[in-house]
Predict the structure.
Amino acid sequence: MTAPYLAVHEVNKRFGDFWALRDVSLNIEPGEFVCFLGPSGCGKTTLLRIIAGLEQQDGGTIVQKGRDISGLPPSQRDFGIVFQSYALFPNLNVRENVGYGLQGKDWPRDKRQARVNELLNLVGLAASDHQYPAQLSGGMQQRVALARALATSPGLLLLDEPLSALDARVRAHLRTELRQLHQRLGVTTIMVTHDQEEALSLADRIVVMNQGGIEQVGTPQEIYQQPRSAFVADFVGKTNPLQAQWVSPGRFNWHGLELSCQQSSALTLGETVTLALRPEDIVLHDNANPDGQGNNRCEAHVQDLEFLGAFCRVRVHLPQNGQSLVADVPSAQALRMGLNTQRPLFIDLPADRMQVFGRSAGAI
């Protein structure tokens, strides 16, 4: 079994009485693209800064490629970094910014110019090499910062919310470019983000963080489809949290409506749990006749309808227990069914798509 490229072991960090990180351990494999994902204040940026040596941990170790770097200054660590603000030098043009770190006897003029040319071609800015940061769009500035971070061929690339300052269209375009660039270069990459869409589209693995700790580590598919806590289910994607009581194996009372669910955790009679169901997993029907087992079919009324392009977000009210749910329905189906706020219908809450979280898994 090969050793991980980066091993973070029981890292702690406090700011006064506030625990920014508590016993954080994580292994990152060579060539992986890993996203630290979580809400503001969860510790993701602090962890990135500790890996870079820009912040000193209070306890724990960091090993990079078999070398303990826990106490080393940033200059003695092997990484390139792109900050949220890009931190470009306003008095240097694109070429000078990219080549800024290529100094000393290891980088004679010809070698330095060749490397800068290679990087400018890599990020598609060869024609803009004499422009200054103020003359560039946000997306172009991000590319310059990325090229500068890659200039010395670091073993580790650190990205601190590099796309957050861009508008949605540019951000989506650069996500694709960043993923393709990583696939070409294969450099081990860690990106901090609070944007779940970025993490899901870019990462090989996602590290979901909350309150200074790691909630779950997994592939985007695992994080979305098999969340291990109510927090992960709620933070990554949209979910309907149903507060219910366990009444018997596989049966739950949700405000007077009994639901079947594939239960996997040990529960006690009467225990309050959270049943989490994704909006896209709710099925809308025109009739009340069940056509399968465990579909939890019940009557509903459309409260609100929001058109979002490829799908419609439908808020429905259940007269049986007075609760509301959100369902995502393909726009073509919504049109075919003639959905509107006067429309009565029936919905399925599929038992095999509901996640059960007891007290130990946290509440939404």
Notes: The chain has a mean pLDDT of 91. The chain has nine helices and 20 strands. The CA atoms of residues 35 and 118 lie 27 Å apart. Residues 168-185 form the longest helix (18 residues).
